[in-house]
Specification:
It is a single chain. By secondary structure, the protein is α+β, with helices and mostly antiparallel strands. It has a single domain (4-74), classed as Alpha-Beta Plaits (2-Layer Sandwich), CATH 3.30.70. The protein has 2 helices and 4 strands, in the order βαββαβ. β2 (36-39) and β3 (44-47) form a beta hairpin. The relative contact order is 0.31.
């Protein structure tokens, strides 16, 4: 389970976030490329665009479910 106190600094403020347990597998970027990006220099993903529609929420929930180390959180 993702820890909101351990969010990576790159996350855009909002209910979805990636924490430091991210292993840079890119699953979230594949599931929701309009919302997740990789920080290749630091080796983790981050949320760069919070969802604002039902379709976007579904994509972010799919990314959360696809994360093999549960590094994505939904604080909403």
């Amino acid at each position: 389970m993702a820890n909101k106190k351990d969010r990576v600094k790159d996350n855009m403020p909002g209910k979805y976030y990636v924490d430091s347990n991210c292993i840079a597998c890119s699953a979230c970027v594949i599931e929701a490329p309009d919302h997740f990006k990789m920080n290749d220099d630091e080796g983790h993903a981050f949320v760069y665009n919070q969802p604002s529609s039902d379709k976007a929420l579904e994509a972010c929930e799919n990314a959360l479910a696809a994360c093999p180390v549960e590094a994505i959180g939904n604080d909403g």
